Amino acid sequence: MKSIASLLAGAVVSLFVAASAMAAGVELNTSQTGLALQGYDPVAYFTEGKPVQGNWQITSQYQGATYRFANEAHKEKFEADPAAYVPQYGGYCAFGTAMGFKFDGDPTQWRIVDDKLYLNLSAEIQEKWLADVPGYIDQADGKWVDIATKSPAELQQ
């Protein structure tokens, strides 16, 4: 019995280490294990018009991040064209990116603009962003070129 418990414990540790090693870089806003969108299904924003939690058993990898899906059909859509579904600015807050910073994007504070998914830090920040969406997107597009490969901490200095 002890050998089975040791084997299981070893497998769990191995999975954790492997998941951490596969975690995405600073250009993507993910958990330490590489989970994107806090587990929300990226395709659901486009097909259902709302954030939907993904199933931990239905996943796909893209650019070092793990995405979860509510169903196999969403996974298939994503795998056919992942760039069409991933959030802009690596899932960081669109308003923060426009200001030259990387703040967490809240998957429940979102908008689709010109077939692209944008996240914001909070409802209050999203309200500011909505005041000039085209202007902030233009600013963020320009800033992202310079900040994409920098950590959020580097940008705070």
Quickly list its features.
two-stranded antiparallel ribbon, 157 residues, alpha+beta, 4 strands, single chain, 7 helices
Tell me, briefly, the overall form.
globular
The total of helices stands at: 7
Structural class: alpha+beta
Radius of gyration: 17 Å
Strand arrangement within the widest β-sheet reads: 1-2
End-to-end distance: 53 Å
Order of helices and strands: HHEEHHEEHHH
Low-confidence stretches: 5-22
Number of strands: 4
What does this structure look like?
The protein has seven helices and four strands. The protein is an alpha+beta fold. The protein is globular, with a radius of gyration of 17 Å. The termini are far apart.
In short:
This protein is an alpha+beta fold and 157 residues long. The protein has helices at 2-21, 44-47, 72-80, 94-98, 123-130, 133-147, 152-156; strands at residues 55-62, 65-69, 106-113, 116-120. 42% of the residues lie in helices and 17% in strands.
